[in-house]
Structure formats: C-alpha cells, structure tokens
Amino acid sequence: MLTDLTIAGALAGLAARDFSATELTTAHLDAIAALNPQLNAFITVTPELALAQAAAADEARAKGHAGPLAGIPIAIKDLFCTKDVRTTAASHILDHFIPPYDSTVTAQLRAAGAVTLGKANLDEFAMGSSNMSSAYGPVENPWHRQGQATRLVPGGSSGGSAAVVAARLALGATGTDTGGSIRQPASFTGTVGMKPTYGRCSRYGIIAFASSLDQAGPMARTVEDCALMLAAMAGFDPRDSTSAERPVPDFAAACRHSVKGMRIGIPTEYAAPGMPAAITDIWQRGQNWLREQGAEIVEVSLPHTKYGVPTYYIVATAECSSNLARYDGVRFGERVEGEDLIDLYERTRAAGFGAEVKRRILLGTYVLSAGYYDAYYLRAQQVRQLILRDFTEVFSKVDALLTPTAPSAAFAIGEMMDDPVTMYLNDIFTVPASLAGVPAMSVPAGLDHQGLPLGLQVIGKHFDESSVFAVAAALERAAGFTATPSLMAGAKP
Amino acid sequence: MSYMIEGKTGPWEIVVGLEVHAQVTSHSKLFSGAATDFGAGPNSQVSFIDAGFPGMLPVINEECVAQAVRTGLGLNAQINLVSRFDRKNYFYADLPTGYQISQYLHPIVGKGVIEVELEGGITKNIGVTRLHLEQDAGKSLHDQSPSKSFIDLNRAGVALMEIVSEPDIRSPEEAGAYLRKLRSILRYLGTCDGNMDEGSMRADVNVSVRKQGEEFRTRCEVKNVNSIRFVMHAVEAEAKRQIELYESGGTVQQETRLYDPARGETRSMRSKEDAHDYRYFPDPDLLPLVLDEAWVAGLKAKLPELPDDKCTRFVRDYKLPPYDAAVLVMEQATAAFYEQVASGRDAKLAANWVIGELFAALNRTGTNIETSPVSAAALGELLDLMADATINGKIAKEVFEAMVETGQSAAAIVESKGLRQVTDTGAIAAAIDQILAANQDKLAEYKSGKEKLFGFFVGQTMKAMAGKGNPALINKILIEKLA
Question: Which one of A15, A189, A281, B125 is CB 3.0 to 4.6 Å from A166, fit for a cystine?
C-alpha cells in the first residue's frame, strides 16, 4: 500500500515512476477521509491544496527538477503558520485565524516539494502531554491495549502529528517540542521524533509557547525519514535571532554511520523509582543493542535532573504568560466585545483560552511578579544553567546519552487528568534536554506487556544531530520494530 | 547664587532629573523593517512584527544600535559592549504584543556627562545615568468616534533612546539648558531630529524639593512633557505644589503626574499603589547584544565635531567671545553658515552680522538658517563690499534689508540704488565746508572746547551725503578743517 511506504521508499518509487505524487497524495487523502473522523488527528484538511501541490511535484519531476521531498505528503502541526490556510494552535482564540505568511519551516518544506495534507491537532498552544487540552477535542491514539477498546491518548503536544504518522495518514509530520512535545508522543505512538538543537530550525512563523525552549522537528516512521525531513526544515534564518548560522550536515548519511567506538552514557538519575518494569527492560535492551554494535556503554551522572520538571514549568510558564499577551481580541483572532478595554480583554481571553492555558498563564504571571521573581524565575534560570552544565560536563566524556523517552506507555483518555502535576511528570525524561537546548530523539524500541509501543531517547551534543541519528538508527536496526497500530490506513477494523 | 524658591518657611532647593525619550533617526523600526516616516497615513507603516501577529519575531536593526552608540559617544558616556533586551509586560490597546521590548538591567550606554551653558557665561556638568534602547508603542486616538478608540500602530516598534539624567538639575533654567544642549548634541550626531512638536523628543520630569543640606525627599514624575518651555514651567509648578504641601503640613506621595499647559499646573495620573507590575524578564526572542570594540571605535572615528569642540575652536581660531561662539554652534547648520561667511573675512564682523542682522531677519521672515532668504555666500559678498570700502556699515544694513526683500545680490542693489560710498575727498570736503558754514554757532562752541560736537559735524556731513560718505575720510578731513 502506498500509505505504508517510508519517505525514502516513496521517493524511490516516485523517482522510478512506479506511482505519481498525485496517486500517493490521493491514497493519503482517502485514508484521512476514512480514519480522521475517529482519530480527530487533523484540525484542518486541505485536499485541494494537497492535490495542487502533488500535481506541481509530478510536473517538476517530469521536467527533471524535483525538490528533495517532491511529492511527499506530510501533515503540519497546527502551530506552524501557513499562508492562506487557517492556523489555530488548537485554541478557540484563533478559531478563524488565517495567517498572511508562512513559517520558515513550512515554506522550506514546500520549497523542497513536500505536499501538505492539512493541519494536525495538538494541545492548545502546545501546552500539554496528552492532546487533551485541544479546543478541537482530543486526538485518539491509533494504538490500543491488546484486546481492549479503551481510547488512549497519543501524547502531546504534537499528538495529532504522531497519530497521523502512526495511522499512515501521512508519511511524516512536523512537530514542535518545548519540553518533550515531539518525543513523548512519538514514544506513545511507535513513531520516530527528533527535537533538534535549539536554533537548528527557525522559529519564525511558529506560534510561540516558550521562546527559549520551542524547537521544530520532524516526526516519521523511520530514523532516516526524520533525517530527510530535518534536512529540509533546518537552516539559518535571519528572521529568527536565535537561529544558528551553521551549515546543515547530511543527516541521512549520518544514519548510516556505525556506532562502533562511540561512548554512550547511561544517566543513573533517569532510573526513576517506580518506573514500570517494561521500561527498565527496554532501556536495558537498548544498551545491549548498542554494545553489540560496538559502542561502549558508560554510566554517567546528570545530578540536577530532578530539578528539570519544576525548572521547566517556571521558565516555560513565565515565557508563555508574556507570549500569549498578544491574544487580546484587538488586532486578530476572536473577540468578545466588552464594556471597556479591560472588559474586552477579560471576556475575550476568558472565552478564548482553555483551562490548561489559563493555568499556565497564571503560573507564569505569578513567577514573574514583583517579590516572587527572584525566588522563582531567577532561581529557575540559575538551575537551568546547572542542568546545562550537567550536559556539557557529561558530553566531555560520552558522545550521546541513552534514556527512556517517557515514564509510561500511552495512557487512556481521561486518565491522569485530576492532578496537573501528575501530567507534568510525564515530561520528566524529556525536559532536561529541552532546558539544555541539546538535540534528542525518540525511537520505538518495543512493546510493553499490553502491546503498547515504548520509545528510547537518544540525547546528543549541541548541533551534533548526526551522532543522535547514528545512534537512533543503530537502535532502530536492532529493535526491528515492525508492530503496527490497530487503527491504520488499510487495516481491517 | 543658586536658584531657590522662597516659601513661608524659608528657601527651598529643587531637585530635578530628566528622562528624555528621543526617537532614533532611522529608516526602519527597532525590530522590524517597517518605515518610520512622520505623518504617514494611519497604520500604513506596520509590519506583522509590529502588530504582534502570531509567530512573528523581532530582529534588531543594526542602524538603531549604531545610533545609540553614537549618542553614547557624543555624551562622553561608557559604551557597554554587552547589553540585553527585556520585556516590560502590560496590557494596552496600542501595545500589540502586550509587552514593550526595552533594556532594563543592562543598558547599551552607561554613565556620561553633558556640559550646559547657563546665564552669565557659567557652565555646569549634568550627569547622564544611562541611555537605553526601547520600542515605542502605538497611538490611541480617543477623539475619532464617540463610542470607540482608534489605534494607529505607525509608531509601534519605532526605536527610542531613553536618556536618563542624574538628579543634578537645580532650576528650571538648568532643565531648559540641559534639554537644549542634549537636543543640540543629538542633532549634530544625526541620531534624533529633536522635533518636540512632532513628538520625536519628549521628557519625563522627576521633581522633588528640599531644604538646603537635606537628603533627597520624595519625588514625583511628570510624564510626557513635549516642549522645553513646558518642562521649565512644569518644574516650577510641581516644585511649588510640593512646597505648599509640605508647608501646610502634608507630605508628598510618590506618583505619576501630568502637566496641563493651559492651567500651568500638574495633576495626579496614578499613585504608587496603582503602579504596574511590569514583570520584566529577558526577552527570549533576542540574544544578548554584543558589540565589537573595533566597530565602536569605527563609529567614534566618524563622529562629527560636536558643539563643545566647535565652540572651543571658534573661540580659539576666530577669536570670538565664548557667548557668541556658543550661540553660533547651537545648531550645526548655523555654525556651518557662519564658517562660510567668516572664511577669509573679518571673523568677528561676520559673527556680529550672523547673530545680529541675519537672526533678526530670520525671525522677522519666519524662516530658519536652512531656508534663509540670504545665503552665506551672499552675506559674504556684502561684507566684502564693506571691506573694500564700496559701502559703509550704515549703507550695508540698508543693502541687507533689500537683499532679504528681493533676493538680489549686494552688488546689484548697490549699483541699482546708487549706494556706492563717496571716497572723492573733494566732494567730502565740499560737503563739510557747507555744514560748517551753515552751523557757525556750533563751530564756535566747538572751538571754545565743546569737543563732543565733532560727532554732530560727522553726522550732519553723512546726512548731507545721503549716508554714502566714507566715514574714515569724513573724520580725517573734518579733523583737518577743525584744526
């Protein structure tokens, strides 16, 4: 089936004229039509645009100047602004917002010839680890516990992107990762997700959650596919002052590098008490796989790991409280009229934002307030420096780190909703790399006892995505992960 | 003697510090490529960045940074090679992002000093605490509709330099002199046009009063005063208000006030309790601003000659009195005009003509040095006609008036009006003989010792010659005849 192809495989098939981009796109649009009503993974589907792009890709290929991703159907997380296509951030406050500009990442993907199928669902403003906070309703994970119909979350915030890729509704998808929003859903859905180094991809045109942490990245079904997508997404952008002026290496080539002789660190602090045995097992197996391929496994320490989640929730909420001030109903987005300006603000924001977004704005406003700034925000910045130093020191000894991606497999819709802190702890293994700005990737490594996918996380040095890809590809080869979700294009229900 | 306000309980000293917001002269805004021209149609110079659209990011405009550094250098101030931008968070309809990007803890320019000229040739140094870069907000228009406020975002994102003085100012005169001098420096540097009526320079005035020898007392901030005259009035009005308050047993509360020029008084805008909590924090969209020392040195090497240096040079090279030099250097264009007139001529005479006749003519005709009806070259030619004795000083003034009126050259006016000076000694002697003959009585008085009458004879002779006699020759011949 065309929908089962990898990006690399589809590119080969398109090049060999086995099928056209139009056929490939149509197959995915059909799959979306069949499954999206249940999965709710897309907020907006753009079939006309996708078919036009596919036709253009076919024409370009016929003329011999096809871009590196010409004809590859992908989904775009609805946090990336797309010119003339509604962009909501899964928030009612942007219900009808149609950006007059493209994000740099989506513009680059289009320039590479990618076909954009539509805008993927997410947690509202990317705030969440379950996709439950979307104003457009939760996304259903295409995976189910063996023999059970319980609907599971796909993780978040890039839950729509992850579900789309897992269910074969697209060959790949863009995600954004602030504290784990690419890696945790990848782990929950048996897909591959890469958060590059902070500064590798431009943030221009991506709706901001926490500016010092937000980073775009690819989600796909193989490590190599992520490499192919990232090559098109990455690069210096003069419109983002924090984007890095560095050359983009050949990530696909890095996937073929051997891990022989590499030193892989195992941070002891990631052995969280009470972690499910399945996760401990898969982590151990990962170490064995790398050792078998010639890597040296080294136990290391990242002593400030335990401060990661509280530090993250101070820094991220502080920045979001300021970043979301612009949604005031005055210039764009939804407005609820009021008696006066303050009333207009209050009504607009009360109606426009969901509970989780409001919670984080309140937290962030609090930690920046006079009298609390030093105790919270300033202290968090200091701890962030210590976390960064943990990584810098450990990377003088090892080439990459191996950890679990998340402390659990996908949980059910409605579970873990009582206490926000329980939910926040789902980010425990992903936030440290976000705070340090280093690249990190989740690869599916196996299934737990209920048949749910579990991911392993590879963390690398700043701007050394190449090593991360090499290690992730080695894990992928060894894991031989071929399991598929119960809900997917072409599967018998 | 220092300035004091006499209260019921004796003299009070006033203490003033000024925060000047100076709009940076630049083609585009501080963090976007939108234009900054004054007077453009509402919302015609707004980028998506300025309007705070989702996903838009600020990128620092290098020219604005260079302008701030030039200004810092012009204020003899410390240039901070590392500075940082912070977000100042508050909600208002003309603040699109909900925060203003400003430099709170780490400004681009540190301590500097401005020397101001006061009456009687006294100078005083006023300290500059800091200069930082920040964005301007948009403009709210409340008078366009009975039920709605309109927003114009053309100003939103325009670069401002906030220049903060030390509380070194002790009188309205010093406040005015500081602002005039600061404006002069900014204009010389080309970093701000200083047009207060267009809002490109505005001042927040911090005022407190105290008895001599006391520590500083509580201050009030008078916001957004938009002319030098109003600043001077506001200082005085606010100081008097505080003195009356203290002398009637009250205390001054720290607060923000507004100056009402129509009533000549300040009134409360918001008290300290209502003050915003701006929740400053470093803007995560911007990296720290790091300047290269060589780049700063390059800017310094290209700075124009500033008013203080020019004034010193005028005194030294043109032998001008310091007061005249200070007047001529206040505006760069005036100094350049003067230097063109003085070049190769009597520099003191040139200064007198520029400061006297020319300034009077500019005032009278409502023009300025750039639009002067008499060019520097034309004024120079007029001085040349005096130097070569074609006309005398008295006629020169008449010729100048005609130049202002007609725009003709001095030589043409002298020819057409027949104003050429008479240097024919025979004609002068004849005129003198006539005057002496007609004034026998005065002549007798003179000869009996009333030597003051010499001037009378000169005047009469000049009058008889319709002002065209050469004064030196008249004197010379008259002395001979009276001997």
Answer: A189
pLDDT of the residue at A492: 56
Does the distance separating the beta carbons of A208 and B279 come in below 8 Å? no
Q: B280-283 long-range CB contacts below 8 Å, 24 or more apart?
A: B280/A368, B280/B86, B280/B87, B280/B88, B280/B89, B280/B104, B280/B105, B281/A318, B281/A322, B281/A368, B281/A373, B281/A377, B281/B86, B281/B87, B282/B84, B282/B85, B282/B86, B282/B87, B283/B58, B283/B85, B283/B86, B283/B87, B283/B101
Q: Indicate if A77 belongs to the active site.
A: yes
Residue in chain A nearest B97 by alpha carbon: A326
Dist CA A216 CA A203 (whole Å): 7
φ, ψ at A439 (rounded to 5°): -75, 145
Provide, for chain B, the percentages of residues in helix, strand and coil under a 3-state DSSP scheme, each rounded to the nearest 5.
40, 20, 40
**Predicted local distance difference test score (pLDDT) of residue A469:** 98
Rg (CA), chain A: 21
Provide the residue type at B104 as one letter.
Y
pLDDT tops 60 at residue B356: yes
C-alpha B112/C-alpha B308 separation (Å) is 15
Per CATH, the number for B425-482 is: 1.10.10.410
The answer for residues whose C-beta is within 8 angstroms of residue A29's C-beta and 6 or more apart is: A45, A47, A50, A51, A117
Q: Which residues pair with B469 in a beta bridge?
A: B422
Active site residue A157: yes
Provide the whole-model pTM: 0.91
Q: Do A101 and B151 touch (CB under 8 A)?
A: no
- Please check whether residue B99 touches A, CB under 8 A: yes
Gap from A237 CA to chain B (nearest CA, Å)? 11
Please give the structure tokens belonging to residue B296. Answer: 């700063």
**Per-residue buried b or exposed e for B454-479, using 16+ beta carbons within 10 Å of the residue's own CB:** eeebbebbbebbebbbbbebbeebbe
Tell me how far apart the alpha carbons of residues B135 and B132 are, in angstroms, rounded to a whole number.
10
The Cα A458–Cα A441 span in angstroms is 5
A328 contacts B55? CB cut-off 8 A: no
Q: Give the containing element (helix H, strand E) for B87.
A: strand B86-89
CA distance A460 to chain B (A): 23
Predicted complex: ipTM over 0.85: yes
- C-alpha A302/C-alpha B418 separation (Å) is 99
Task: Name, in order, each residue with C-beta under 8 angstroms of B140's C-beta and a sequence gap of 6 or more.
Answer: B92, B93, B94, B149, B150, B151
3-class DSSP state of A466: helix
- And the tokens for A42? 């897309």
Mutate: best of A76, A125, A368, partner B, most B CBs <10 A: A368
- Calpha distance A434→A430 (Å, rounded): 7
**Residue of A81, A238, A239 with shortest CB distance to B54:** A81
Q: State mean pLDDT over A403-432.
A: 88
Structure tokens at B456: 């009378």
Provide the H-helix boundaries in A200-260. Answer: 223-233, 251-254
Which residue segments constitute the domains of chain A, with CATH numbers given? 2-263 (3.90.1300.10)
Domain with CATH 1.10.10.410 in chain B: 425-482
Please indicate if any CB of chain A lies within 8 Å of the CB of B48.
yes
pLDDT tens-digit readout, B12-31: 999 999 999 999 999 999 99
**Nearest-CA distance from B86 to chain A in Å?**
11
| Three-state DSSP string of B223-248 | EEECCHHHHHHHHHHHHHHHHHHHHC
A397 part of the active site: no
Q: What is the pLDDT of residues B334-348, one digit of tens each?
A: 999 999 999 999 999
Interface membership of A212 toward B (CB under 8 Å) = yes
DSSP type of residue A491: -
Outline where DSSP puts E strands in B136-293: 139-141, 150-152, 159-165, 201-210, 220-225, 255-260, 265-271, 281-282, 289-290
Residue type, A146: Q
Is A309 at the interface with chain B, CB within 8 A? no
Tokens at A367, concatenated:
């930690």
